[in-house]
Write a structure and sequence with these properties.
This protein is mainly β and 169 residues long. The chain is built from one helix and ten strands. The protein has one helix at 144-168, and strands at 2-16, 25-32, 35-38, 42-43, 48-57, 63-70, 77-85, 91-92, 103-115, 118-143. The strands form two sheets. Strands 1, 5, 8, 9 and 10 form a five-stranded mixed β-sheet that branches. Strands 2, 3, 4, 6 and 7 form a five-stranded antiparallel β-sheet that branches. A hairpin with a 2-residue loop joins strand 9 and strand 10 (118-143). The longest helix is centred in the C-terminal third of the chain and has 25 residues, at 144-168. Residues 94-98 have low confidence and may be disordered.
């Protein structure tokens, strides 16, 4: 049995953080549904990650939550959040994910706006920005065994990344 799936490809590039404090130690958290991925923490007010994440998506009526956090001594502080509906993301069949100029500069806000318990948008700009390269690849066709194997590998990679984040904390 062949399964058609969409693959959400996210390259977290860089941020521009406004503020008097240049001692930022920031990381980005990307969430879709109950799945999340986290970049390494990078210091400075213009952090540069260039970290790539992949998510299997079956429902394109969902949204992607992108959060910028500043690592603290005791608590981490949310610097900004952006919600991006999957329907607004470029769809491609390119062989090289980032051949096309899909860079997206998103403004980060400080508040989520909810309706019936679902995120509909973010509001109250913070002045911080993230540059991302995002696309959905609709051309992925795999069989059920390959799908399970890929999911296992993604789970292991996400666990390793989470452990690295905890160790760096």
């Amino acid at each position: 049995m062949i399964i058609k799936m969409s693959l959400l490809c996210v390259l977290v590039k860089e941020a521009h953080i406004n503020g008097p404090d240049s001692n930022f130690n920031t990381y980005v958290v990307i969430k879709i549904g109950s799945v999340k991925s986290t970049t390494q923490a990078v210091q400075g007010d213009h952090p540069d990650w260039n970290e790539e994440f992949f998510f299997e998506v079956n429902e394109l009526d969902m949204g992607l939550t992108i959060e910028l956090w500043n690592r603290g001594m005791v608590w981490d502080k949310l610097l900004g959040i952006h919600w991006l509906p999957l329907g607004n993301i470029y769809r491609s069949r390119a062989t090289n994910v980032y051949e096309l100029d899909n860079d997206l500069r998103v403004s980060l806000d400080s508040e989520l706006s909810l309706k019936d318990g679902k995120i509909i948008c973010t509001q109250t700009p913070t002045g911080h920005y993230l540059t991302l390269n995002i696309r959905i690849d609709n051309s992925v066709e795999i069989n059920r065994a390959e799908n399970l194997e890929i999911q296992k590998k993604l789970d292991v990679l996400n666990e390793i990344l989470e452990q690295q984040v905890k160790l760096n904390y």
